[in-house]
């Protein structure tokens, strides 16, 4: 190897080979980051796109209909095979079909292929044969399709009305009965209400669809089970964009279905946001208090320096250790004691003696306390001493100096600290697994029931949702698009929070930069 | 005249009293908060002590049971086993923590093997070579990487990267072997470019214009991989590993964990190392360059020795993070408690054990206390490492001040 990097005439200042490796490591890091974010964005956003349904005819004459998922080389290296997502779990026992590419005769995209999204059994792919309403004539062809569409619209409105009615009328009564404060009249009322619920449910059922799968099997599908019906092959780009937007909105606004492998993530978003809000309410005042003590009140000696280093280092302690502390002290210690004192009548089923929103927020608050303390202290240290001296010289007491001069100037720093804490807390999952996150929380921690915010309840969380769908769900392949979308959402939220913190800090620096110059 | 003088002492005393009260409250609150944070270590120690020493006499477990191979009924040779939930009567729980601790350290070591060169290279480049405009954008971007949640990285590593690498093992190896020489080649070619062309591709922007070059290397590796596998590894690297080296390639293994954790740890090492390197007083670097040193020589001989404590502390903080990272290990490691050293085997780390087993362990039981011992180990390790790093960094700051640079 010639030493080409050393000072030849053509190379006035060679930097040597290592400089290039260093440059390459920056490039590699940027490339990896871009790859990760790109993967999440493409897969996560693509999840809502109504892809075309392919009708595949095999060499032996069999047909199948489904969406192409991926194509990989066969294990023996000869040829490739494709994976189709065919739906129809109740017929085939599986929603996937592997097809060797060599065995495919033709692939077409007929417009009449229908995709039904159902409450149970997942997706159904096939042709619409007939529409058989409870009353009225049997319809076929295009008429059946339009009848189905209008019926689905009515059904959705009915479902929403029923849900509202149940929440407003039925649930409060049930809760009153459960807490044991209602009498016999209430029991009767409940039975009447439940009978009405059954009645209204029955009114929604009755209509039926007859469908044929790609390989010709007939299937009767109760319409009440169907959530949505689309014909993706017949949709134009604009219609697909509309469907994409509606899909994304449903993902954000609906609850999960099918053991967290389908549906939306609304309860998880709600749980994450609520957790983080309660946590920041807890952490900000205490963090600021500790920072003010350390920076303004405490004697600046060796001990304070040691404490400062200790606090700083606690930011590097693994989050799972905080989770252990939360479980041992908050849940088993304080929670168990609270249960023994105030909720003895419900024991042995614990109220506060098990993981819940309060303990999870407290644990995260402890975890992020060092972040807030460090950021606030940084802000306090940036305030020039002559501001304090000026205030004191004008006759202000220390409290007045702090509350009128120092703290207002340090507000951006406190905000930065809070946002950094929120960003750190939003991504933490490990400690939550010990102190109260739930795979599926039947009750949201906020409702119309006194005291409205139920801190002892378990909650769902976006990060834990990812972990759970990826490792505890049945069919990971089916859940993958949903996990991508959830991961993208989580990353976006955290990036947004961090960017806000960066912006605030920049603002703070430039403001105090001018202050110390004048 | 007399009226104001009567009011003023009263108001004055009131203000003084309020001030004293507030100071007292702040002091009490501040000390309380700090004590609460520090209580973690105390709690863990108090809960762990009964394992080894109790007033009634006799320990629940001895150190030997935890860290040395044990004879278990039904097994021939003494082995390390972590099977804490086996029924108490027969054959009895097994509490060998050595597999957990050793594999935790191994995974952290692999992640450092990947993260340290990347982070230090990136730090050196962005502190000395990168154009100022690019650096103003790239540095915050790389630091934002630090905020990526572990659960997302773990998901991508465990469910995307692991199955992909299993199928493309040969390609992965080819790419890793091709990257360094490929980058050196880029440097060599750049040196031979006409000076006019070189102006359009300055070294300060190399981080960006090397991206397409890296894409070409990727394509080249894709083309070369089958040949390489056929020549060296009889056509299939995975089969070759199994037959020639006796290494079983598990789908999720220590190497995958190392890569994912390396990716997660790299930004924090980068940020601290970059701060240390760019904090070196500029007069030193200017002096070296004025004496004719190239920028790389300046870095290697002047800047790096001056900043070495800061770089070392950056690496230590990275190590602390890697040891305690939970979600990535949980999702990318397969969670099998094995006592091996093979990077291609699954592993179970201390943190992952805590996350999985603690909710099921009965409070106060031996298993519970052992998991708390694991937490204590993690706490002590990270706390010590971070304290050491902090002390080193304080020294460094003092040294810079002495060298007459920026504070």
TrEMBL record, chain A:
It is a multi-pass membrane protein. The keyword Cell membrane applies. The chain crosses the membrane at residues 20-42, 265-294, 314-335, 355-376, 405-426, 482-504. It is found in: Cell inner membrane; Cell membrane. One of its GO terms (cellular component) is plasma membrane. Pfam families: BPD_transp_1. CDD domains: TM_PBP2. One of its GO terms (biological process) is phosphate ion transmembrane transport. GO terms for molecular function: phosphate transmembrane transporter activity. Residues 269-501 form the ABC transmembrane type-1 domain. Belongs to the binding-protein-dependent transport system permease family. CysTW subfamily. This is Phosphate transport system permease protein PstA.
TrEMBL record, chain B:
Its main location: membrane. The chain crosses the membrane at residues 21-46, 107-130, 142-165, 171-191, 203-225, 254-273, 302-323, 370-392. InterPro entries: MetI-like, MetI-like_sf. It is a multi-pass membrane protein. The keyword Transport applies. Keywords: Membrane, Transmembrane, Transmembrane helix, Transport. Residues 101-389 form the ABC transmembrane type-1 domain. GO terms for biological process: transmembrane transport. Pfam families: BPD_transp_1. GO terms for cellular component: plasma membrane. It is found in: Cell membrane. The keyword Transport applies. Belongs to the binding-protein-dependent transport system permease family. This is Phosphate transport system permease protein PstC.
């Amino acid at each position: 190897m010639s030493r080409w990097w050393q000072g030849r005439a053509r190379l006035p200042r060679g930097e040597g080979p290592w400089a290039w490796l260093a440059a390459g490591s920056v490039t590699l890091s940027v490339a990896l980051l871009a790859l990760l974010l790109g993967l999440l964005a493409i897969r996560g956003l693509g999840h809502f796109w109504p892809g075309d349904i392919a009708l595949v005819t095999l060499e032996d004459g069999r047909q199948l209909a489904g969406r192409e998922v991926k194509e990989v080389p066969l294990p023996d290296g000869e040829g490739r095979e494709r994976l189709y997502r065919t739906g129809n779990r109740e017929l085939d026992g599986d929603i996937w079909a592997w097809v060797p590419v060599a065995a495919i005769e033709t692939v077409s995209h007929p417009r009449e292929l229908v995709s039904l999204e159902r409450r149970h059994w997942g997706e159904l792919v096939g042709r619409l044969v007939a529409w058989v309403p409870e009353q009225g004539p049997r319809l076929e062809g295009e008429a059946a399709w339009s009848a189905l569409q209008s019926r689905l619209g009515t059904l959705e409105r009915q479902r929403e009305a029923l849900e509202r009615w149940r929440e407003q009328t039925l649930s409060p009564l049930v809760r009153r009965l459960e807490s044991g404060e209602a009498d016999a009249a209430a029991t009767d009322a409940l039975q009447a209400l439940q009978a009405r619920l059954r009645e209204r449910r029955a009114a929604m059922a009755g209509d039926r669809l007859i469908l044929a799968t790609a390989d010709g099997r007939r299937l009767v599908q109760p319409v009440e089970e169907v959530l949505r019906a689309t014909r993706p092959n017949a949709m134009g780009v604009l219609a697909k964009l509309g469907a994409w937007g509606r899909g994304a909105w449903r993902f954000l606004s609906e609850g999960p279905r099918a053991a967290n492998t389908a549906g939306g993530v609304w309860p998880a978003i709600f749980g994450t946001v609520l957790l983080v809000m309660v946590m920041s309410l807890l952490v900000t005042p205490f963090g600021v208090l500790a920072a003010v003590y350390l920076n303004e009140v405490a004697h600046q000696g060796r001990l304070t320096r040691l404490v400062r280093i200790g606090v700083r280092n606690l930011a590097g302690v693994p989050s799972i250790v905080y989770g252990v502390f939360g479980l041992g002290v908050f849940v088993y210690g304080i929670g168990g004691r609270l249960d023994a004192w105030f909720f003895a009548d419900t024991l042995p089923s614990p109220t506060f003696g098990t993981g819940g929103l309060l303990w999870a927020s407290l644990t995260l608050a402890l975890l992020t306390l060092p972040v807030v303390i460090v950021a606030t202290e940084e802000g306090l240290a940036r305030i020039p001493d002559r501001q304090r001296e000026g205030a004191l010289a004008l006759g202000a007491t220390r409290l007045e100096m702090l509350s009128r001069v120092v703290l207002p100037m340090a507000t951006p720093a406190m905000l930065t600290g809070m946002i950094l804490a929120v960003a750190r807390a939003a991504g933490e999952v490990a400690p939550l697994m010990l102190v109260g996150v739930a795979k599926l929380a039947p009750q949201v921690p906020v409702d119309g029931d006194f005291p409205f915010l139920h801190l002892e309840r378990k909650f769902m969380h976006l990060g834990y949702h990812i972990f759970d769908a990826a490792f505890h769900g049945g069919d990971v392949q089916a859940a993958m698009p949903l996990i991508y979308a959830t991961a993208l959402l989580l990353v976006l939220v955290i990036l947004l929070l961090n960017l806000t913190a960066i912006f605030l800090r920049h603002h703070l620096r430039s403001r105090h930069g001018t202050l110390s110059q004048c | 005249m007399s009226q104001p003088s009567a009011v003023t002492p009263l108001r004055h005393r009131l203000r003084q009293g309020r001030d004293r009260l507030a100071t007292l409250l702040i002091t009490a609150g501040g000390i309380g908060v700090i004590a609460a944070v520090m209580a973690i270590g105390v709690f863990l120690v108090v809960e762990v002590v009964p394992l080894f020493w109790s007033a009634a006499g006799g320990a629940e477990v001895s150190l030997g049971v935890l860290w040395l191979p044990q004879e278990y009924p039904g097994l021939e040779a003494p082995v390390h086993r972590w099977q804490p939930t086996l029924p108490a009567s027969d054959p009895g729980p097994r509490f060998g923590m050595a597999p957990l601790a050793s594999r935790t350290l191994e995974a952290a070591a692999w992640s450092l093997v990947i993260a340290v060169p990347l982070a230090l290279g990136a730090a050196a480049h962005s502190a000395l070579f990168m154009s100022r405009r690019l650096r103003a954008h790239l540095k915050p971007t790389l630091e934002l990487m630090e905020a990526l949640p572990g659960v997302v990285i773990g998901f991508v590593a465990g469910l995307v990267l692991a199955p992909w690498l299993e199928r493309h093992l040969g390609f992965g190896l080819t790419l890793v072997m091709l990257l360094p020489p490929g980058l050196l080649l880029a440097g060599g070619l750049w040196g031979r470019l006409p000076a006019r062309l070189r102006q359009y591709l300055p070294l300060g922007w190399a981080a960006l214009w090397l991206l397409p070059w890296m894409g070409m290397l990727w394509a080249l590796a894709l083309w070369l991989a089958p040949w390489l596998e056929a020549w060296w590894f009889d056509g299939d690297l995975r089969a070759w590993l199994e037959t020639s080296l006796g290494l079983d390639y598990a789908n999720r293994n220590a190497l995958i964990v190392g890569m994912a954790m390396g990716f997660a740890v790299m930004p924090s090492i980068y940020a601290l190392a970059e701060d240390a390197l760019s904090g070196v007083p500029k007069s030193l670097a200017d002096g070296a360059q004025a004496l004719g040193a190239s920028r790389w020589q300046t870095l290697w001989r002047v800047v790096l020795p001056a900043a070495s404590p800061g770089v070392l502390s950056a690496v230590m903080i990275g190590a602390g993070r890697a040891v305690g990272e939970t979600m990535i290990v949980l999702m990318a490691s397969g969670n099998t408690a094995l006592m091996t050293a093979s990077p291609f085997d699954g592993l179970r780390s201390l943190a992952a054990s805590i996350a999985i087993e603690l909710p099921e362990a009965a409070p106060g039981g031996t298993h519970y206390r052992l998991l708390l011992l694991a937490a204590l180990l993690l706490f002590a390790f990270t706390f010590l490492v971070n304290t050491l790093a902090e002390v080193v960094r304080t020294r460094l700051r003092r040294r810079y001040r002495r060298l007459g640079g920026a504070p």
